[in-house]
Amino acid sequence: MSSTAFASQLPTARAARPVRAARPARPAVRPAARAQGSLRLTRRGRLVVLVLGLVAMLALGVVLGSVSAASDGSTAGQTETIRVQSGDTLWDIAAARAGSGESVQDVIDEIRSINHLSSGALMAGDQLEVPAAG
């Protein structure tokens, strides 16, 4: 084999790429104007702040709602405790407590609400908070 045949099989050298100038290094300390009074949050940071704000508003709403519900009783301080006798019904008790012009059913609903009763069933010996006689 001749040297020219061997030379044609060698890879040819490519032209060298131009060298880029290096970027100047970032300063280790941020400029004073940016460090004072500006806070940069990432996308995740903004999401966390938003969620925490919503949770805080929800908690505040629950607290204020429970305080409002606790003070909403129209008969607060105007109740009496009675003991259910044998044969007493919720209707009889409510009828005795209903004022003039007041519906017995409204008084039954109020007694059930005050005592957290799910039904009108009463047992002899039960103690009930009832509106003061009107």
TrEMBL record:
Alphabetical UniProt keywords: Membrane, Transmembrane, Transmembrane helix
One family name in Pfam for this protein: LysM
Keyword Zinc-finger attributed: no
Transmembrane helix recorded as keyword: yes
Segments for region (Disordered): 1-32
PROSITE patterns, sorted: LYSM (PS51782)
Protein name, entry field: LysM peptidoglycan-binding domain-containing protein
Superkingdom assignment: Bacteria
Xref: CDD domains: LysM (cd00118)
Bias type Low complexity, positions: 13-32
Organism: Nocardioides zeae
Membrane-traversing stretches: 47-67
Biased segments, Polar residues type: 1-11
Record-annotated LysM domain positions: 80-130
Cited InterPro entries: LysM, LysM_dom_sf
